[in-house]
């Protein structure tokens, strides 16, 4: 019986792993859709690179750093880190491993897919002006070291876990970790040429392929079935199905409230805001998806949708140029979702709220400092930003041998 | 053992739920692919709206209306409908619920994904000229009230179920329900400017992105693995796998026969017809996917493919302007599939055929009347159709603040 | 217990079947993305045709030809082949069938999805100049007869299986079978007009939609979860999860090594090479995905990535015009992966290596001869290639009644 249950659990976790992998297509579509065609190859290159290097780095370093007897906890890893990182424990394929929720191999792959996500979030925010090599270097370090250390404090059984900090699927540990780096990177990089006029006017730079951006969001929503559903770490019928319900209701509510607020504020039906509202709802529910009732989930989503509309405006006001809205979606809604665990659902309470706040602050401080050190060092050595000429003519022309994303199509210049 | 079987069943149903969700991307791609670029944002907005509001409305009202002791049956709902609709029954996460096929949460989410589909079908038929707010209002009412009432008559254990009417996964209850509203809406809206010449000539208005339309159909086919496979309501190995086989064979046969018939009729290889033939095969098998042999499925698909070719021509002849072929695909093949249950497979027989016919007629009458009342009222109050200027210049320009789907690309005007 | 395990196993196999089906969207996106817009409808038509006819043909002929008591083994099929090919064995839905790994219906559908893949591989290599009817005829014969015969020698328990030849998921039996036909077809067809200058110069013909090509590769990667994960033929937790890990690591390593080698050779960041490197890694691991450690998988992938860079250059040097790199990816990496089973992992050894080599050679000879006979006959009767005028103006214009893939967009002529 146990064996069969392991088989069933492991199937669910493998399906979820595939869905989280598929989120990378969602991110890719979203990011290229919301930026200009002249930088499309460059963005795709970054995203494909992150998936590949993210998995390899996580295999070499991250997985062992994040989980067993954390390095930050001051002890050596529990078992030998062999040359290529993965070393099957004796019980790794049995029901004794991970309470029979999945095998050691599934464990690695599911977590590895998560790891790459954090860097991908940054990728959207720095698009259209970051130097490819600099970004690649940053993402290797961030995925390989910063993400797993932060993760180990909670998911690896570290001090935040001991304090009772709760982050079910990573509103803080994935989305904010990516979001903090995004805000630091955007600050250090500066805005794209033309985004902010001399008079302080904000100029919209429209994305070149809105159907792709929309597809990206729907693919991300589907991916979240795996991101949250898999974070149950087994196929427990009650927990997984509740998680999918809260996830979908929060997404729907986030979209609707973002659509309504933005329609009231801007007097037109803004599809991009609608889409970011959905993502905000998804990020917002992620910290407590297994702790909420459907009603809680809808309220969390509704608030996340409003946050998105004001968050995007705020980021603009701060003269931070975030082409895809990554800061509002992943950072601000990530914080909101983490705090919401202390306000709604089964764990609500002032103590919990304060612990959630502490977790947000500690992870935030760690990520800001880490991202700043890495990115500032890169800026002072290799440089972070492409030349003005390259930015104006497009990164595809300069970094990718003139490869065009759509060579058969006639383009407008801008 | 029972617990483990519930876990396995529930995994399958959650996977199917994800696949049905993914169909919304398929519908979106299909609809924008087969229409003009100037209305792309508008169509995407509608589709994203339907997913979000569909889930929320179904949570508030639809699920309780459709399933437990139907309202139409004249009795009050079996259990208290709380403010937000969902109320976990005591046994909702145990093997006692739904014969151990899935949990209460999965039940809601799977059915909720279905509900939104019916409105999406309409969306394609009314594209490029319907007023956004009017369509949104219509879809809220249709998904929230009409769809669940019709559904309750069969799937909620209502009178059609008692009569022995059979509709496995919704040839009638989903596809025709959408299709009837589509034909009413198209009739009330009128055709797009330029579609029918004064001399009665039918002018093709080519879709602007055929690769996306093709992707939409392949995504829909994949989604049908969940639509039909999940309608087994458990992971029963024999029933689910037979269902996938009949579904895929009918789709393949529908495509091939549609391709051959249209090649004979029009002397060229028409990709759109091929694609609609696949969809016709899928809709056609849906009513009896678990009752057919592979041979039956192929024959049903072959006939559906021919129906598509003649159906599309018939709709044109009736001067009904259906940009994506929704009426031929969802209504006509939905009827065909429902009747086919009385002709082929395990339930074939004259009695069954007549019951199927009665079901088609009753649901049809109910949907036509409901859709007419809702849409006629909207037409006389808010209006159904955008202005001539808006239609000519594109709905994206007028309803979405001038947001363009592809601002970097140079376009032909038409 | 057994029943529940069958249910779980069958769920996994159905999910994998869906994923392999989804690969056809990946192939479609990849092929149209890497070719010119003027042939897009034509390529999509081919691919959609292959899925549909592939399933039907495999149902009529292929499945029975490939598996039960092979025809090539000189005996009649074990059981009656009825008119439509599928005939449920008495135990076909019980745990007695296929060691309880799946049902008879799942067996057929999973294998049927594989079958169509082989022809799709050819489709990419012959794109932009092959006659549609000729290609359709070829693919019917190849999928219906050649593929299942070759497959029966190993997977049907034929002589290669008896010799100990190993090909887990089809580096040889699927990818090389497709790849050999591709090279024969490309040779017989000749290169596209303009590909090779009179001075021997190779002119790059850029693909028209690189985002779609990228999406295609990510979809294919996801599909490989099912392609390799399903080839375990059950949901055995250890074997399936190891397979997913080796598959993903090989893909990632293939991408990274291809990116690095091509950057060194060509001094720019070539996204297409990166993408083909990922595919090369995937094809390379396919023969031994269940036999390798993660370390082995990374090495196999790294080598595959380098092979891709040199393979693409070699194919160009041989004046073979393969628009999508199918020969390097599927044929050369398919051979590499098959041989790698004799070099790395649990089966490594000189004897095994020689058996692998023999298998590669025998299947290669059979496929080359078969493909040559079929294609040469077609060439001499119906013709293989479109007219020069048709090629220059685009196949969409001539074979598809002037249907355009993107009629609203302004295009460059080339």
From TrEMBL, chains A, B, C:
Predominant place of localization: membrane
- Residue ranges spanning the membrane: these are 12-32, 44-67, 108-127, 134-153, 165-189, 210-227, 239-259, 271-289, 295-315, 327-347, 353-378
Localization, UniProt? Cell membrane; Membrane
- Tell me, what is one Gene Ontology molecular-function annotation carried by this entry? ammonium channel activity
**InterPro entries assigned:** Ammonium/urea_transptr, Ammonium_transpt, Ammonium_transpt_CS, NH4_transpt_AmtB-like_dom, RhesusRHD
A Pfam family (short name) is Ammonium_transp
Biological process terms in GO annotation? ammonium homeostasis
Topology term for the membrane: Multi-pass membrane protein
Q: Where is the Ammonium transporter AmtB-like domain?
A: 11-403
Q: Which UniProt keywords apply?
A: Ammonia transport, Membrane, Transmembrane, Transmembrane helix, Transport
Concerning its family, UniProt says:
Belongs to the ammonia transporter channel (TC 1.A.11.2) family.
The name of this protein is Ammonium transporter
Q: Which organism is it from?
A: Sinomicrobium pectinilyticum
């Amino acid at each position: 019986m146990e064996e069969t249950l392991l088989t069933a659990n492991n199937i669910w976790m493998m399906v979820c792993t595939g869905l989280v992998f598929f989120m990378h297509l969602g991110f890719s579509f979203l990011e290229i859709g919301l930026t200009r065609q002249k930088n499309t190859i460059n963005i795709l290159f970054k995203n494909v690179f992150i998936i590949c290097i993210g998995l390899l780095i996580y295999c070499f370093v991250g997985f062992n750093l994040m989980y067993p007897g954390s390095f930050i906890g001051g002890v050596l890893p529990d078992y030998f880190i062999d040359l290529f990182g993965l070393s099957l424990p004796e019980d790794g394929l049995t029901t004794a491993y991970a309470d029979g929720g999945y095998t050691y191999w599934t464990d690695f792959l599911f977590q590895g897919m998560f790891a790459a996500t954090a860097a991908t979030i940054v990728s959207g925010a720095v698009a259209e002006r970051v130097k490819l090599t600099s970004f690649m270097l940053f993402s290797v370090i961030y995925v390989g070291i910063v993400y797993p250390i932060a993760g180990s404090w909670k998911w690896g059984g570290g001090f935040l876990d001991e304090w009772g900090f709760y982050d079910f699927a990573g509103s803080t540990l994935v989305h904010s970790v990516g979001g903090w780096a995004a805000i630091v990177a955007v600050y250090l990089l500066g805005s794209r040429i033309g985004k902010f006029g001399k008079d302080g006017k904000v100029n919209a730079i429209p994305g070149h392929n809105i159907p792709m951006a929309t597809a990206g969001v729907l693919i991300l929503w589907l991916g979240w079935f795996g991101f949250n559903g898999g974070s149950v770490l087994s196929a427990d019928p009650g927990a997984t199905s509740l998680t999918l319900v809260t996830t979908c209701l929060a997404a729907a509510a986030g979209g609707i409230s973002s659509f309504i607020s933005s329609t009231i504020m801007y007097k037109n039906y803004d599809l991009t805001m609608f889409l970011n509202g959905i993502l905000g709802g998804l990020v917002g529910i992620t910290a407590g998806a297994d702790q909420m009732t459907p009603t809680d989930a809808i309220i969390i989503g509704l608030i996340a949708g409003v946050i998105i509309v004001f968050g995007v405006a705020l980021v603009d006001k701060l003269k931070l140029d975030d082409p895809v809205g990554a800061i509002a979606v992943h950072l601000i809604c990530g914080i909101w979702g983490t705090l919401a665990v202390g306000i709604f659902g089964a764990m609500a309470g002032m103590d919990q709220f304060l612990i959630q706040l502490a977790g947000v602050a500690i992870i935030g401080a760690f990520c800001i400092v880490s991202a700043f050190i890495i990115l500032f060092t890169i800026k002072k050595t290799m440089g972070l930003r492409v030349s003005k000429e390259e930015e104006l003519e497009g990164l595809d022309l300069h970094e990718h041998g003139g490869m065009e994303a759509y060579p058969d199509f006639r383009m407008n210049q801008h």
